[in-house]
Structure formats: C-alpha cells, structure tokens
Amino acid sequence: MPSSISHIVAGASLGYSLSGGRRGALFFFSAALISILPDLDVLAFGFGIPYGDIFGHRGFFHSLVFSAIMSLATVLIWFRGRDGAAAERVRLCAMLFIIAASHPVLDALTSGGRGIGLFIPFYNERLFFPWRPIAVSPIGVREFFSEWGLRVMKSELRYVIVPSFMMIIVAFIIRLALRRDVQD
What we know:
This protein is mostly helical. The protein has helices at 4-19, 25-36, 64-78, 86-107, 141-144, 147-183.
C-alpha cells in the first residue's frame, strides 16, 4: 500500500480537481478521511483475521462496494440538508466515491502484498494491476522511518505526489481557461 500521506494527497487533489476547489472544509476533511479509511482493515490482524480472508487486509474494505457504501454514508450523515438539491448530493457522492476508490486503485499499483479485493463481494479474488511501480509501504511506524520507508517515499513522490500536484495545476488552468471563455 502507499503510505497514508500519499493516499491523503491523492484524495485531496482529486477532491480539488473534481469540485473546482469550491467546497468547504468539511468536504476536504471527508476527502482526506475517506481516502485512508480502507487501511483500518489492518486492525483485522489484531482480531486474528488472516490477511487472505475477505475481511482481512486489502479485502472487502478495499473494494469498490465499500467505496460506494462509504461515500453514500458520508453524504447521508455529514452533508444531509447542506447542499439542498438531490442532484448536488448525487454529484457529491460521486466525487467522494472516486476519492474513496483511489485508495484500492493506488494499492493495486504497489509492488507487494497479496492483491486487492477490488470486486468483493462479487468476485473474491485479489488483484493487482500489471504495472506496479509504487513501492509497498511498511505497515509499522518504525519500519516507515528506515531505508525501506525512504524507498517508499521516493516512489510515492514520483508516482503519486507529483502527479497529484500536476492534476491540481491542470484543473486550475482548465477552470481559468473556461472562465475566460465565459467572460469573452
């Protein structure tokens, strides 16, 4: 898995790019939270749930179904009555789904682990993408502050953090160009 730092950066940049940067603090807090939430499944180890179990690490909580559930729950709990129109809540849910789904997608691009349960409960096999350029992050904090962690951060800078900032810049430029077209 990429580190929580990279998941948050990717989630925030997707949130900014998809929302036009016009959302409040609650939206960006939600984007950050929903982008790292799937990794709470590491707690399964403490309950004796094996890695390869459907509810083990990178299982159901890394699925697109879980991403959909979390985005819908976030909108229903935190944004009910805030953005009036149902169509706006659907757009908000769609944005949060894309942000949440970025987590398992990034994990499927890593070099380690046993795959991602992207389609659980419909297909229980764990998957990786054929191209896996992101160095897998250690789970423990101590291991993160080691040579392994340094390799991970270099990898994440190249394949997650820099592209995330580039996405923000491109989204900003596109919005600027669209505003100029409207004004002309």
